[in-house]
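Justification of resources, computational component.

The compute hours requested in this renewal are based largely on the per-chain cost of generating structure records like the one below. Each record pairs the submitted sequence with a full structure-token output. That output is archived, and it is also reused by downstream analysis tasks.
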Amino acid sequence: MVGKKNKHEEMPLVEGYTPERRTISILAANLWAVALLAVAGLAGWALMYRMHPSIAFEAMDSVWFIVMMVVGLAVHELVHGVTWLLLLHKGFRHLSFGMMTGAIYCHIDVPMVKRQYVIGALMPLLLVGMVPWVAGIAAGSLLWMAAGATMISGAAGDLMIVWAIRKEPSSTLVYDHPSEAGCFVYSKNQ
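The structure output for this chain reads:
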């Protein structure tokens, strides 16, 4: 049974379980984001150049790129939330959005099993990053490939959080951290 939140730790107490904090450094996530951007951008450009040797970036693409990044950041966080709500069959009242250390975030206030948490954590990488990246390469659109590469890099923190809980069984209870990048993992008391 989920009990009241422990204000000191900012997570719900779950009867019969002990929580362990698993958070990541925003600085490390940003460094990994730069590396992911370089890899996705260079790989995308190389693939596009092989498939579409006459590709070009139009002047108006710069404006559209900025628009896509602003919209993409919001959609990235919304995809986290909607995915978790669909997996947990909960309402929007369980979601909150905000800013932390210069990054926007989505938080859900419901513990879930690791499998659900991981799906929700990685869905923006797939839908907001990989889909436009692959579509851009296939269509020969530098704009869409670059937007996808940038959104792939925006999932660096999500990938780091998933990596931090990778050894936990898929049935482990996980609670999204409300004020830091990461989560709490609940171990069953012996």
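Residues 3 and 13 are 5 Å apart (CA to CA). The helical segments are 26-51, 59-88, 114-139, 142-153, 156-164.
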